[in-house]
Amino acid sequence: LAESDVDYYFFLAGENAATVGEYQLNITEHPIPSNDVCESAIELKKFPSSIMSGSLVGATPDFDGADAQTCVSNIDTRGVWYKVEGRGAVIKLEYQLKTVGLGNSKVVIFKGLCDNLVCWNSIEGEDHYYNENDVVSYEFLAGNGEIFWILLSGEHWYTVGQYDLKMREHAVPENDSCDEAILFQAASNQQYSDKSTTVGATPDFDESSSVVLSSSCIANWYSRGVWYRFEGNGAIVRIEYQLNSVAGGDSDLSVFTGDCANPTCIANVKGADGYYGVNEVAVHDMVAERGESYYILLAGELFTAAGEYSFSVTEYEIPQNDDCKNASVIESFPFSQRGTTIGATPDFDLFDDRCGGGLDSRGIWYMFTGNDKVTTVSFSMPNLAYGTSSQLSLFSGSCNKLKCEADFGGLDKVSFHAANGVNYWLLLSGTEFWAYGDFDLHVSQFEPPSNDSCESSIPMTAPFTGNNDLTGATPDFGGDDTTCGNGWSGAWYSFTGDGKAYMLSLNTVVTDYYFQCEINIFRGSCDELTCVSTFLGSGSNAAVSSDPLLTTSGVKYWVHIAANVVSYDSLPFQISLVQVE
After folding, report:
1. Whether 116 contacts 67, CB under 8 Å
2. CA-based nearest residue to 90, from 164, 152, 166, 168
3. Which of 201, 371, 494, 533 sits most deeply, having the most CB atoms within 10 A of its CB?
4. pTM of the predicted model, to two decimals?
5. How far apart are alpha carbons 238 and 397 in whole angstroms?
6. How many CA atoms lie within 13 A of 157 on its CB side?
7. Radius of gyration (Cα) for the chain, nearest Å?
Protein backbone atom coordinates (compact mmCIF):
# COMPACT_ATOMS: atom_id res chain seq x y z
CA LEU A 1 0.00 0.00 0.00
CA ALA A 2 1.61 3.23 -1.16
CA GLU A 3 0.47 5.87 1.26
CA SER A 4 -0.55 9.23 -0.20
CA ASP A 5 2.22 11.89 -0.47
CA VAL A 6 4.91 9.49 0.69
CA ASP A 7 8.02 9.04 -1.49
CA TYR A 8 9.20 5.46 -2.01
CA TYR A 9 12.70 4.54 -3.29
CA PHE A 10 13.53 1.21 -4.96
CA PHE A 11 17.11 -0.06 -4.87
CA LEU A 12 17.67 -2.69 -7.56
CA ALA A 13 20.77 -4.89 -7.16
CA GLY A 14 22.05 -8.45 -7.30
CA GLU A 15 23.16 -10.96 -4.73
CA ASN A 16 26.88 -10.10 -5.08
CA ALA A 17 29.27 -8.00 -7.15
CA ALA A 18 29.10 -10.42 -10.06
CA THR A 19 25.30 -10.30 -10.22
CA VAL A 20 24.91 -7.53 -12.78
CA GLY A 21 23.25 -7.16 -16.17
CA GLU A 22 20.33 -5.66 -17.97
CA TYR A 23 17.08 -5.44 -15.98
CA GLN A 24 13.40 -4.68 -16.41
CA LEU A 25 11.26 -2.89 -13.81
CA ASN A 26 7.43 -2.72 -13.85
CA ILE A 27 5.44 -0.75 -11.31
CA THR A 28 1.65 -1.03 -11.52
CA GLU A 29 -0.78 0.99 -9.45
CA HIS A 30 -3.98 -1.03 -8.99
CA PRO A 31 -7.17 0.97 -9.16
CA ILE A 32 -8.92 1.20 -5.81
CA PRO A 33 -12.38 -0.42 -5.96
CA SER A 34 -15.28 2.01 -5.62
CA ASN A 35 -16.47 0.09 -2.54
CA ASP A 36 -13.07 -0.09 -0.85
CA VAL A 37 -14.31 1.42 2.42
CA CYS A 38 -17.44 0.99 4.51
CA GLU A 39 -18.70 4.51 3.72
CA SER A 40 -18.70 3.73 -0.01
CA ALA A 41 -20.25 0.27 0.30
CA ILE A 42 -22.37 -0.83 -2.65
CA GLU A 43 -25.98 -0.99 -1.43
CA LEU A 44 -27.90 -4.00 -2.67
CA LYS A 45 -31.57 -3.11 -2.84
CA LYS A 46 -32.41 -5.90 -5.25
CA PHE A 47 -30.76 -9.25 -5.41
CA PRO A 48 -29.99 -10.23 -9.00
CA SER A 49 -30.11 -13.89 -9.91
CA SER A 50 -26.82 -13.49 -11.79
CA ILE A 51 -23.41 -13.56 -10.14
CA MET A 52 -21.70 -10.25 -9.30
CA SER A 53 -17.98 -10.32 -9.98
CA GLY A 54 -15.15 -8.08 -8.86
CA SER A 55 -11.54 -7.95 -7.68
CA LEU A 56 -9.82 -7.43 -4.34
CA VAL A 57 -6.44 -6.68 -5.93
CA GLY A 58 -6.64 -2.89 -5.48
CA ALA A 59 -8.44 -2.98 -2.13
CA THR A 60 -6.72 -1.39 0.84
CA PRO A 61 -6.65 -2.55 4.48
CA ASP A 62 -9.85 -1.80 6.36
CA PHE A 63 -8.68 -1.64 9.97
CA ASP A 64 -5.67 -0.59 11.95
CA GLY A 65 -4.56 -1.92 15.31
CA ALA A 66 -6.73 0.51 17.24
CA ASP A 67 -10.06 -0.54 15.79
CA ALA A 68 -9.44 -4.16 14.83
CA GLN A 69 -12.53 -6.27 15.35
CA THR A 70 -12.76 -9.66 17.01
CA CYS A 71 -13.90 -11.29 13.76
CA VAL A 72 -11.07 -9.73 11.69
CA SER A 73 -8.20 -12.20 11.88
CA ASN A 74 -5.55 -9.92 10.35
CA ILE A 75 -5.58 -6.10 10.32
CA ASP A 76 -3.60 -6.11 7.06
CA THR A 77 -6.26 -7.96 5.11
CA ARG A 78 -8.01 -5.92 2.45
CA GLY A 79 -11.46 -6.22 0.99
CA VAL A 80 -14.54 -4.59 -0.47
CA TRP A 81 -17.86 -3.61 1.10
CA TYR A 82 -21.54 -4.17 0.43
CA LYS A 83 -24.56 -2.90 2.31
CA VAL A 84 -27.94 -4.64 2.77
CA GLU A 85 -31.10 -3.35 4.41
CA GLY A 86 -33.25 -6.21 5.69
CA ARG A 87 -36.85 -6.77 4.71
CA GLY A 88 -37.75 -9.45 7.25
CA ALA A 89 -36.59 -12.32 5.05
CA VAL A 90 -33.77 -14.86 5.02
CA ILE A 91 -30.85 -13.94 2.76
CA LYS A 92 -28.40 -16.44 1.31
CA LEU A 93 -24.90 -15.17 0.56
CA GLU A 94 -22.40 -17.09 -1.59
CA TYR A 95 -18.85 -15.77 -2.00
CA GLN A 96 -15.91 -17.39 -3.76
CA LEU A 97 -12.45 -15.86 -3.94
CA LYS A 98 -10.66 -17.36 -6.93
CA THR A 99 -7.21 -17.61 -5.45
CA VAL A 100 -5.10 -20.76 -5.30
CA GLY A 101 -2.87 -21.48 -2.33
CA LEU A 102 -2.90 -17.93 -0.94
CA GLY A 103 -5.10 -18.43 2.12
CA ASN A 104 -8.75 -18.74 3.06
CA SER A 105 -11.40 -16.41 1.70
CA LYS A 106 -13.39 -14.55 4.33
CA VAL A 107 -16.79 -12.88 4.79
CA VAL A 108 -17.33 -10.60 7.78
CA ILE A 109 -20.80 -9.20 8.56
CA PHE A 110 -21.17 -6.11 10.73
CA LYS A 111 -24.06 -4.16 12.17
CA GLY A 112 -24.11 -0.59 13.42
CA LEU A 113 -22.56 2.42 11.68
CA CYS A 114 -19.37 2.71 9.66
CA ASP A 115 -17.71 4.71 12.42
CA ASN A 116 -18.90 2.27 15.09
CA LEU A 117 -19.14 -1.18 13.56
CA VAL A 118 -20.13 -4.20 15.64
CA CYS A 119 -18.94 -7.59 14.42
CA TRP A 120 -21.96 -9.87 13.89
CA ASN A 121 -20.42 -12.96 12.28
CA SER A 122 -17.55 -14.18 10.15
CA ILE A 123 -17.28 -17.17 7.84
CA GLU A 124 -14.35 -18.57 5.90
CA GLY A 125 -13.94 -20.52 2.68
CA GLU A 126 -11.11 -23.02 2.87
CA ASP A 127 -8.00 -22.52 0.78
CA HIS A 128 -6.98 -25.26 -1.66
CA TYR A 129 -3.44 -25.44 -2.98
CA TYR A 130 -4.46 -26.87 -6.33
CA ASN A 131 -7.97 -25.46 -6.75
CA GLU A 132 -9.85 -22.25 -6.12
CA ASN A 133 -11.09 -21.61 -2.60
CA ASP A 134 -14.33 -23.18 -1.38
CA VAL A 135 -17.50 -21.16 -1.74
CA VAL A 136 -18.53 -19.40 1.47
CA SER A 137 -22.26 -20.08 1.84
CA TYR A 138 -24.16 -18.41 4.63
CA GLU A 139 -27.82 -17.72 5.40
CA PHE A 140 -29.09 -15.15 7.86
CA LEU A 141 -32.29 -13.41 8.80
CA ALA A 142 -32.24 -9.77 7.70
CA GLY A 143 -34.81 -8.22 10.01
CA ASN A 144 -37.04 -5.54 8.59
CA GLY A 145 -35.07 -2.25 8.50
CA GLU A 146 -31.84 -3.80 9.87
CA ILE A 147 -28.61 -2.63 8.19
CA PHE A 148 -25.87 -5.16 7.49
CA TRP A 149 -22.35 -4.28 6.30
CA ILE A 150 -20.64 -7.09 4.42
CA LEU A 151 -16.87 -7.16 4.03
CA LEU A 152 -15.44 -9.56 1.43
CA SER A 153 -11.75 -10.22 1.97
CA GLY A 154 -9.06 -12.86 2.39
CA GLU A 155 -7.11 -14.36 5.26
CA HIS A 156 -3.88 -12.43 4.57
CA TRP A 157 -2.68 -9.25 2.84
CA TYR A 158 -1.77 -11.27 -0.24
CA THR A 159 -5.06 -13.27 -0.30
CA VAL A 160 -6.55 -11.19 -3.12
CA GLY A 161 -7.89 -11.86 -6.60
CA GLN A 162 -11.06 -12.10 -8.59
CA TYR A 163 -14.23 -13.02 -6.73
CA ASP A 164 -17.85 -13.97 -7.38
CA LEU A 165 -20.70 -12.89 -5.13
CA LYS A 166 -24.29 -14.04 -5.24
CA MET A 167 -27.01 -12.96 -2.83
CA ARG A 168 -30.64 -13.94 -2.92
CA GLU A 169 -33.63 -13.32 -0.70
CA HIS A 170 -35.75 -16.40 0.05
CA ALA A 171 -39.51 -16.10 -0.16
CA VAL A 172 -41.15 -16.31 3.28
CA PRO A 173 -43.54 -19.33 3.45
CA GLU A 174 -47.23 -18.56 3.86
CA ASN A 175 -47.26 -20.59 7.09
CA ASP A 176 -44.13 -19.02 8.54
CA SER A 177 -45.78 -18.11 11.86
CA CYS A 178 -48.16 -19.80 14.28
CA ASP A 179 -50.91 -17.31 13.40
CA GLU A 180 -50.54 -18.29 9.75
CA ALA A 181 -50.53 -22.05 10.37
CA ILE A 182 -52.07 -24.15 7.60
CA LEU A 183 -55.32 -25.63 8.90
CA PHE A 184 -56.15 -29.18 7.92
CA GLN A 185 -58.68 -31.68 9.20
CA ALA A 186 -57.69 -35.14 10.35
CA ALA A 187 -60.16 -37.84 9.30
CA SER A 188 -60.54 -41.45 10.42
CA ASN A 189 -58.20 -43.83 8.63
CA GLN A 190 -57.06 -41.06 6.28
CA GLN A 191 -53.79 -39.20 5.80
CA TYR A 192 -53.05 -35.53 5.25
CA SER A 193 -49.70 -34.85 3.56
CA ASP A 194 -47.75 -31.88 2.27
CA LYS A 195 -44.34 -31.11 0.76
CA SER A 196 -42.60 -27.77 0.79
CA THR A 197 -39.46 -26.04 2.10
CA THR A 198 -38.33 -24.33 5.28
CA VAL A 199 -35.53 -22.42 3.50
CA GLY A 200 -37.32 -19.06 3.63
CA ALA A 201 -38.80 -19.60 7.09
CA THR A 202 -37.86 -17.15 9.81
CA PRO A 203 -37.16 -17.84 13.52
CA ASP A 204 -40.34 -18.43 15.49
CA PHE A 205 -39.34 -17.21 18.93
CA ASP A 206 -37.04 -14.59 20.34
CA GLU A 207 -34.34 -15.30 22.87
CA SER A 208 -36.38 -14.12 25.83
CA SER A 209 -39.64 -15.84 24.85
CA SER A 210 -41.39 -17.65 27.70
CA VAL A 211 -41.79 -20.65 25.39
CA VAL A 212 -38.02 -20.79 24.87
CA LEU A 213 -37.23 -20.29 28.55
CA SER A 214 -39.70 -22.85 29.89
CA SER A 215 -39.83 -25.50 27.19
CA SER A 216 -37.56 -28.37 26.24
CA CYS A 217 -39.24 -28.28 22.82
CA ILE A 218 -37.06 -25.41 21.60
CA ALA A 219 -33.49 -26.58 21.11
CA ASN A 220 -32.40 -23.29 19.55
CA TRP A 221 -34.54 -20.17 19.56
CA TYR A 222 -32.94 -19.06 16.28
CA SER A 223 -34.06 -22.18 14.41
CA ARG A 224 -36.69 -21.58 11.73
CA GLY A 225 -39.74 -23.52 10.68
CA VAL A 226 -43.28 -23.64 9.35
CA TRP A 227 -46.60 -24.25 11.08
CA TYR A 228 -49.67 -26.49 10.70
CA ARG A 229 -52.70 -26.97 12.93
CA PHE A 230 -55.64 -29.35 13.28
CA GLU A 231 -58.42 -30.19 15.70
CA GLY A 232 -58.44 -33.56 17.47
CA ASN A 233 -61.18 -36.18 17.12
CA GLY A 234 -60.33 -38.27 20.17
CA ALA A 235 -58.26 -40.70 18.06
CA ILE A 236 -54.63 -41.72 17.72
CA VAL A 237 -52.72 -39.69 15.13
CA ARG A 238 -49.26 -40.30 13.72
CA ILE A 239 -47.19 -37.28 12.69
CA GLU A 240 -44.23 -37.86 10.35
CA TYR A 241 -41.72 -35.23 9.28
CA GLN A 242 -38.61 -35.64 7.15
CA LEU A 243 -36.28 -32.73 6.41
CA ASN A 244 -33.65 -32.72 3.68
CA SER A 245 -31.08 -30.44 5.32
CA VAL A 246 -27.97 -32.53 4.39
CA ALA A 247 -25.61 -32.03 7.34
CA GLY A 248 -27.33 -28.85 8.53
CA GLY A 249 -28.47 -30.47 11.78
CA ASP A 250 -31.29 -32.64 13.11
CA SER A 251 -34.85 -32.01 12.03
CA ASP A 252 -37.12 -30.89 14.86
CA LEU A 253 -40.84 -31.74 15.19
CA SER A 254 -42.71 -29.92 17.98
CA VAL A 255 -46.37 -30.14 18.97
CA PHE A 256 -48.16 -27.44 20.98
CA THR A 257 -51.60 -26.92 22.50
CA GLY A 258 -53.19 -23.72 23.73
CA ASP A 259 -53.06 -20.79 21.33
CA CYS A 260 -50.44 -18.86 19.40
CA ALA A 261 -50.21 -16.19 22.08
CA ASN A 262 -49.45 -18.74 24.79
CA PRO A 263 -48.49 -22.12 23.30
CA THR A 264 -47.75 -25.12 25.53
CA CYS A 265 -45.28 -27.67 24.23
CA ILE A 266 -46.47 -31.28 24.64
CA ALA A 267 -44.00 -33.15 22.43
CA ASN A 268 -40.67 -32.79 20.67
CA VAL A 269 -39.16 -35.42 18.38
CA LYS A 270 -35.95 -35.21 16.37
CA GLY A 271 -34.92 -36.79 13.08
CA ALA A 272 -31.17 -37.45 13.09
CA ASP A 273 -29.03 -35.49 10.65
CA GLY A 274 -28.27 -37.54 7.54
CA TYR A 275 -24.85 -35.92 6.70
CA TYR A 276 -24.85 -37.42 3.19
CA GLY A 277 -28.58 -37.50 2.53
CA VAL A 278 -31.97 -36.67 3.98
CA ASN A 279 -32.51 -36.70 7.73
CA GLU A 280 -34.20 -39.60 9.43
CA VAL A 281 -37.96 -39.36 9.75
CA ALA A 282 -39.20 -37.79 12.99
CA VAL A 283 -42.27 -39.78 14.09
CA HIS A 284 -44.70 -38.98 16.89
CA ASP A 285 -47.87 -40.87 17.89
CA MET A 286 -50.35 -39.22 20.23
CA VAL A 287 -53.97 -39.10 21.33
CA ALA A 288 -55.55 -36.05 19.73
CA GLU A 289 -58.23 -35.16 22.27
CA ARG A 290 -61.61 -34.31 20.79
CA GLY A 291 -62.04 -30.56 20.27
CA GLU A 292 -58.43 -29.72 21.22
CA SER A 293 -56.41 -27.55 18.81
CA TYR A 294 -52.90 -28.76 18.03
CA TYR A 295 -50.13 -26.64 16.51
CA ILE A 296 -47.26 -28.39 14.73
CA LEU A 297 -43.92 -26.66 14.18
CA LEU A 298 -41.63 -28.21 11.57
CA ALA A 299 -38.14 -26.83 12.04
CA GLY A 300 -34.49 -27.78 12.38
CA GLU A 301 -32.12 -28.14 15.27
CA LEU A 302 -30.17 -25.08 14.11
CA PHE A 303 -30.75 -22.12 11.81
CA THR A 304 -28.72 -23.99 9.18
CA ALA A 305 -31.08 -27.00 9.32
CA ALA A 306 -33.44 -25.92 6.56
CA GLY A 307 -34.50 -27.39 3.25
CA GLU A 308 -37.22 -29.29 1.46
CA TYR A 309 -39.43 -31.46 3.65
CA SER A 310 -42.26 -33.97 3.57
CA PHE A 311 -44.96 -34.01 6.24
CA SER A 312 -47.95 -36.22 6.95
CA VAL A 313 -50.57 -36.75 9.65
CA THR A 314 -52.53 -40.00 9.77
CA GLU A 315 -55.56 -40.53 12.00
CA TYR A 316 -56.04 -44.19 12.83
CA GLU A 317 -59.45 -45.77 13.05
CA ILE A 318 -60.44 -46.55 16.64
CA PRO A 319 -61.14 -50.31 17.03
CA GLN A 320 -64.71 -51.23 17.91
CA ASN A 321 -63.46 -53.05 21.00
CA ASP A 322 -61.25 -50.15 22.13
CA ASP A 323 -62.88 -49.98 25.57
CA CYS A 324 -64.22 -52.47 28.09
CA LYS A 325 -67.91 -51.77 27.49
CA ASN A 326 -67.51 -52.56 23.77
CA ALA A 327 -65.40 -55.68 24.28
CA SER A 328 -65.62 -58.40 21.62
CA VAL A 329 -67.48 -61.37 23.09
CA ILE A 330 -65.90 -64.81 22.71
CA GLU A 331 -68.86 -67.19 22.49
CA SER A 332 -67.19 -70.46 21.50
CA PHE A 333 -63.82 -72.17 21.72
CA PRO A 334 -61.31 -72.49 20.22
CA PHE A 335 -61.22 -68.82 19.23
CA SER A 336 -58.62 -67.20 16.95
CA GLN A 337 -58.26 -63.68 15.63
CA ARG A 338 -55.65 -61.44 14.07
CA GLY A 339 -55.83 -57.69 14.48
CA THR A 340 -53.96 -54.54 15.42
CA THR A 341 -53.80 -52.20 18.40
CA ILE A 342 -52.45 -49.29 16.36
CA GLY A 343 -55.62 -47.20 16.68
CA ALA A 344 -56.38 -48.19 20.28
CA THR A 345 -56.47 -45.44 22.90
CA PRO A 346 -55.12 -45.56 26.48
CA ASP A 347 -57.29 -47.52 28.90
CA PHE A 348 -56.40 -46.29 32.38
CA ASP A 349 -55.47 -43.25 34.40
CA LEU A 350 -53.87 -42.86 37.81
CA PHE A 351 -57.03 -43.88 39.66
CA ASP A 352 -57.67 -47.19 37.88
CA ASP A 353 -56.39 -50.69 38.54
CA ARG A 354 -54.10 -51.07 35.53
CA CYS A 355 -53.21 -54.72 36.14
CA GLY A 356 -49.83 -54.28 34.43
CA GLY A 357 -48.69 -52.05 31.60
CA GLY A 358 -48.32 -48.28 31.81
CA LEU A 359 -50.67 -45.38 32.41
CA ASP A 360 -50.73 -44.65 28.69
CA SER A 361 -50.72 -48.27 27.45
CA ARG A 362 -53.37 -48.72 24.79
CA GLY A 363 -55.15 -51.89 23.92
CA ILE A 364 -58.33 -53.70 22.94
CA TRP A 365 -60.77 -55.82 24.91
CA TYR A 366 -62.28 -59.30 24.72
CA MET A 367 -64.79 -60.90 27.09
CA PHE A 368 -66.01 -64.45 27.81
CA THR A 369 -67.93 -66.23 30.54
CA GLY A 370 -66.15 -68.95 32.51
CA ASN A 371 -67.42 -72.54 32.54
CA ASP A 372 -65.22 -74.17 35.17
CA LYS A 373 -62.55 -75.16 32.63
CA VAL A 374 -58.90 -74.39 32.20
CA THR A 375 -58.57 -71.67 29.58
CA THR A 376 -55.37 -71.08 27.61
CA VAL A 377 -54.64 -67.72 25.97
CA SER A 378 -51.90 -67.25 23.38
CA PHE A 379 -51.15 -63.61 22.59
CA SER A 380 -48.23 -62.32 20.54
CA MET A 381 -47.21 -59.00 18.97
CA PRO A 382 -44.24 -59.88 16.74
CA ASN A 383 -43.29 -56.44 15.43
CA LEU A 384 -43.09 -54.26 18.53
CA ALA A 385 -40.69 -51.32 18.84
CA TYR A 386 -37.30 -52.14 20.36
CA GLY A 387 -37.34 -52.12 24.14
CA THR A 388 -41.10 -52.65 24.47
CA SER A 389 -43.15 -55.81 24.98
CA SER A 390 -46.71 -57.02 24.86
CA GLN A 391 -48.98 -56.91 27.90
CA LEU A 392 -51.78 -59.38 28.66
CA SER A 393 -54.10 -58.47 31.55
CA LEU A 394 -56.97 -60.55 32.95
CA PHE A 395 -59.91 -58.99 34.80
CA SER A 396 -63.18 -60.18 36.24
CA GLY A 397 -66.26 -58.28 37.37
CA SER A 398 -67.93 -55.56 35.35
CA CYS A 399 -66.58 -52.65 33.31
CA ASN A 400 -67.42 -50.13 36.00
CA LYS A 401 -65.84 -52.30 38.69
CA LEU A 402 -63.02 -54.36 37.23
CA LYS A 403 -60.95 -56.66 39.39
CA CYS A 404 -57.42 -57.56 38.33
CA GLU A 405 -57.18 -61.35 38.29
CA ALA A 406 -53.68 -61.64 36.78
CA ASP A 407 -50.96 -59.51 35.25
CA PHE A 408 -49.40 -61.89 32.74
CA GLY A 409 -46.96 -59.27 31.44
CA GLY A 410 -45.30 -60.25 28.18
CA LEU A 411 -45.97 -64.01 28.46
CA ASP A 412 -46.90 -65.43 25.07
CA LYS A 413 -49.05 -68.20 26.51
CA VAL A 414 -50.93 -68.52 29.79
CA SER A 415 -53.48 -70.87 31.33
CA PHE A 416 -55.93 -70.23 34.14
CA HIS A 417 -59.06 -71.73 35.61
CA ALA A 418 -62.16 -69.87 34.45
CA ALA A 419 -64.71 -70.24 37.23
CA ASN A 420 -68.23 -71.13 36.19
CA GLY A 421 -70.49 -68.15 35.48
CA VAL A 422 -67.79 -65.50 36.03
CA ASN A 423 -67.27 -62.86 33.35
CA TYR A 424 -63.63 -62.47 32.33
CA TRP A 425 -62.10 -59.56 30.42
CA LEU A 426 -58.89 -59.81 28.40
CA LEU A 427 -56.99 -56.59 27.70
CA LEU A 428 -54.45 -56.92 24.91
CA SER A 429 -51.98 -54.04 24.98
CA GLY A 430 -48.30 -53.17 25.39
CA THR A 431 -46.10 -52.07 28.25
CA GLU A 432 -46.26 -48.41 27.16
CA PHE A 433 -47.84 -46.03 24.66
CA TRP A 434 -45.30 -46.95 21.95
CA ALA A 435 -45.96 -50.69 22.32
CA TYR A 436 -48.56 -51.35 19.65
CA GLY A 437 -48.95 -53.25 16.40
CA ASP A 438 -50.40 -56.35 14.79
CA PHE A 439 -51.26 -59.27 17.06
CA ASP A 440 -52.33 -62.92 17.02
CA LEU A 441 -54.83 -64.12 19.64
CA HIS A 442 -55.85 -67.72 20.30
CA VAL A 443 -58.12 -68.78 23.17
CA SER A 444 -58.87 -72.43 23.87
CA GLN A 445 -60.35 -74.55 26.65
CA PHE A 446 -59.60 -78.07 27.80
CA GLU A 447 -61.82 -80.75 29.25
CA PRO A 448 -60.56 -81.74 32.70
CA PRO A 449 -59.34 -85.27 33.37
CA SER A 450 -62.03 -87.73 34.42
CA ASN A 451 -60.36 -87.89 37.84
CA ASP A 452 -60.07 -84.09 38.25
CA SER A 453 -61.51 -84.14 41.78
CA CYS A 454 -60.96 -86.18 44.91
CA GLU A 455 -64.50 -87.55 44.64
CA SER A 456 -63.80 -88.87 41.12
CA SER A 457 -60.45 -90.48 41.94
CA ILE A 458 -59.34 -93.57 40.03
CA PRO A 459 -58.95 -96.56 42.40
CA MET A 460 -55.64 -98.47 42.29
CA THR A 461 -54.68 -101.99 43.34
CA ALA A 462 -51.01 -102.92 43.35
CA PRO A 463 -49.34 -103.60 41.06
CA PHE A 464 -50.91 -100.70 39.14
CA THR A 465 -49.77 -98.66 36.12
CA GLY A 466 -51.95 -95.99 34.59
CA ASN A 467 -51.52 -93.33 31.88
CA ASN A 468 -53.27 -89.97 31.99
CA ASP A 469 -52.89 -86.29 31.11
CA LEU A 470 -52.90 -83.25 33.40
CA THR A 471 -54.14 -80.96 30.66
CA GLY A 472 -57.30 -79.22 31.81
CA ALA A 473 -56.91 -80.09 35.48
CA THR A 474 -58.62 -77.51 37.68
CA PRO A 475 -57.51 -76.14 41.08
CA ASP A 476 -58.11 -78.42 44.02
CA PHE A 477 -57.33 -76.35 47.08
CA GLY A 478 -58.40 -72.88 46.12
CA GLY A 479 -54.97 -72.34 44.60
CA ASP A 480 -53.32 -72.04 48.03
CA ASP A 481 -52.54 -75.05 50.19
CA THR A 482 -49.34 -75.27 52.16
CA THR A 483 -50.12 -78.29 54.33
CA CYS A 484 -49.42 -80.86 51.61
CA GLY A 485 -47.69 -79.82 48.39
CA ASN A 486 -47.98 -76.53 46.57
CA GLY A 487 -51.69 -76.41 45.77
CA TRP A 488 -51.18 -76.99 42.03
CA SER A 489 -53.95 -78.34 39.82
CA GLY A 490 -53.86 -82.09 39.35
CA ALA A 491 -55.53 -85.48 39.03
CA TRP A 492 -56.60 -87.92 41.76
CA TYR A 493 -56.06 -91.62 42.54
CA SER A 494 -56.86 -93.72 45.60
CA PHE A 495 -56.09 -97.10 47.18
CA THR A 496 -56.89 -98.87 50.46
CA GLY A 497 -54.17 -99.90 52.90
CA ASP A 498 -53.63 -103.51 54.02
CA GLY A 499 -50.79 -103.13 56.51
CA LYS A 500 -48.11 -103.53 53.83
CA ALA A 501 -45.64 -100.99 52.37
CA TYR A 502 -46.15 -99.42 48.97
CA MET A 503 -44.25 -97.00 46.70
CA LEU A 504 -45.69 -94.54 44.19
CA SER A 505 -43.85 -93.34 41.07
CA LEU A 506 -44.71 -90.49 38.68
CA ASN A 507 -43.10 -90.05 35.26
CA THR A 508 -43.88 -87.29 32.77
CA VAL A 509 -43.17 -87.28 29.05
CA VAL A 510 -40.19 -85.22 27.91
CA THR A 511 -41.11 -81.58 27.22
CA ASP A 512 -39.14 -78.58 25.98
CA TYR A 513 -39.42 -76.66 29.22
CA TYR A 514 -38.37 -77.11 32.81
CA PHE A 515 -41.14 -77.67 35.35
CA GLN A 516 -41.90 -79.33 38.67
CA CYS A 517 -44.27 -82.16 39.56
CA GLU A 518 -45.34 -83.67 42.84
CA ILE A 519 -47.02 -86.62 44.52
CA ASN A 520 -49.20 -85.67 47.49
CA ILE A 521 -50.58 -88.45 49.71
CA PHE A 522 -53.59 -87.91 52.00
CA ARG A 523 -55.80 -90.00 54.26
CA GLY A 524 -59.24 -89.34 55.61
CA SER A 525 -62.23 -88.32 53.48
CA CYS A 526 -62.45 -85.96 50.51
CA ASP A 527 -64.13 -83.29 52.59
CA GLU A 528 -61.56 -83.63 55.39
CA LEU A 529 -58.18 -84.67 54.02
CA THR A 530 -55.11 -85.11 56.20
CA CYS A 531 -51.68 -84.79 54.64
CA VAL A 532 -49.49 -87.88 54.99
CA SER A 533 -46.48 -86.93 52.85
CA THR A 534 -45.44 -85.03 49.72
CA PHE A 535 -42.68 -85.65 47.19
CA LEU A 536 -41.33 -83.17 44.60
CA GLY A 537 -39.50 -83.74 41.30
CA SER A 538 -38.29 -81.39 38.56
CA GLY A 539 -36.77 -81.27 35.08
CA SER A 540 -37.84 -81.23 31.43
CA ASN A 541 -38.95 -84.85 31.91
CA ALA A 542 -39.80 -84.45 35.56
CA ALA A 543 -40.17 -87.62 37.59
CA VAL A 544 -40.59 -88.36 41.27
CA SER A 545 -41.02 -91.41 43.50
CA SER A 546 -42.34 -91.61 47.01
CA ASP A 547 -40.64 -93.18 49.95
CA PRO A 548 -42.05 -96.56 50.99
CA LEU A 549 -45.37 -95.96 52.73
CA LEU A 550 -46.38 -98.44 55.45
CA THR A 551 -50.17 -98.48 55.19
CA THR A 552 -52.74 -99.07 57.84
CA SER A 553 -55.13 -101.85 57.10
CA GLY A 554 -58.56 -100.62 56.01
CA VAL A 555 -57.51 -96.95 55.70
CA LYS A 556 -58.14 -95.23 52.37
CA TYR A 557 -55.33 -93.20 50.88
CA TRP A 558 -55.78 -90.41 48.34
CA VAL A 559 -53.01 -89.60 45.84
CA HIS A 560 -52.88 -86.19 44.22
CA ILE A 561 -50.66 -85.91 41.07
CA ALA A 562 -49.89 -82.28 40.12
CA ALA A 563 -47.48 -80.00 38.21
CA ASN A 564 -46.70 -76.30 38.17
CA VAL A 565 -46.91 -75.90 34.39
CA VAL A 566 -49.23 -72.96 33.77
CA SER A 567 -49.39 -73.13 29.98
CA TYR A 568 -49.46 -76.37 28.11
CA ASP A 569 -51.45 -78.11 25.41
CA SER A 570 -50.61 -81.61 26.63
CA LEU A 571 -48.83 -83.00 29.69
CA PRO A 572 -49.15 -86.80 29.68
CA PHE A 573 -47.85 -88.80 32.61
CA GLN A 574 -47.66 -92.34 33.97
CA ILE A 575 -48.35 -93.34 37.56
CA SER A 576 -47.48 -96.66 39.17
CA LEU A 577 -48.17 -98.28 42.54
CA VAL A 578 -46.04 -101.23 43.67
CA GLN A 579 -45.70 -103.18 46.89
CA VAL A 580 -42.28 -103.13 48.52
CA GLU A 581 -40.77 -105.48 51.12
Report:
1. no
2. 168
3. 201
4. 0.78
5. 34
6. 7
7. 42
